[in-house]
Amino acid sequence: MAKFKIELKQHTPLIHFQSEQPGAILRATEVKPKLDRFLIECAFNNEFNEYKQYLIGYKTGKKEYDFKDKKAFDYRLKIYMEHPNKIKKIDINKSMKKLYFASGFEGEKINGVFTNEYIILEFFTFHKVLIDRIKKYIEKFFCFNNFGTRQNKGFGSFYINKDLKSQNNISEEYFDYKIEVFNNKKNSPVLWNDVFREINKLWENIRSVESDTTPYIKEFAKTKGIIWDKDIIRDKFVNNKKKLVENKYLIKDLLGLSVEESWKDRYGKWFNIKKEHISGTSDIKIDRMESPIFFKPLKDEQNNFIVYIKVKDMPKEFWNQKFKITKWIEKKKIGCIQLITPTQEEFNIHEFFEFVKTNENIKYTTKKRNRLSQSALSYKVQNFSKNEFLSSIEAAIDGETKEKLKNIK
Q1: Model confidence, pTM
Q2: What are the CA-CA distances from residue 340 to residues 204, 245, 278, 291, 322 (Å)?
């Protein structure tokens, strides 16, 4: 039997639904399904014939549709700690709590769990090829995945036990953007609330806080001639305007679908907004869509944090889809409007985040900076070859020779 073991370090609290239970930490039941999907996509390029023999339940002649959405690789994963009693409960408060309740709904006290001890992952399988693929891609997997609740916003960040200041830092390789979080007090570690304050401030500016220049999603849409959906909803359900508006789209939900929201009318009374996917270019019913902007906070050996940012491609099924937006007061339906999401040509998520970067203290990673430098150099070389190079040749030719060249047909 092939065997493989790694050590993980935890970087941010994991919001665990079993946080009250002793020993609650990273669960194999969450890690394995996510890792299986990741391996199918990244290690086997979604080629069923390349990985079918490593699936649980595979027999000769079985087709991909026989597995439906239950493709589980044939390996066993064990997750444990040498000292499980060193798991601490963390009160999710201040900026962490604000980010957790980003939707505006607050509830009871929230606890996370955290440990400074190494978390050990052991893989067992009879398939050597499979274990080799896991070894090759496991670090990349932990780059692009957090765990537990609110994982897209940086909670539940784990990473391979390694020196994050080394030249082989894979985080710099796979991400395009980063936010550096330092403590101004000498020899003082950066606190989690400092980290999540930065994430929350950026996220509010991107998606929710309305000012002269934010949210950026609204301002970016304006550059494309698109009306922001909250203005449409406000005009209809708060200001009771009936004027038809062109270029209205469902924009905010491109950054994560909110199927239910709480609003206030002009008199301060609350009402609910519910969104339902009703039609589009695909037969898929959309009731959730996670944010394409992913935050990966990692703590280095100097107790400073770098928050890496990944901007993922939007699922093609979410473009050009129609949603019904309904106003409810208690259980009474008041009215509704319909909005569609833009097409892929009308809204580019990567172009949008470049717009965000120009307004925020966000840096490029080494990979992104090098790529931009190479692009600039390539442009200069091409520009020189077409203009400066030809001009330099022309300048070197004497007048008599130029006249002779003009007469050559």
Answers
A1: 0.86
A2: 23, 13, 10, 18, 4
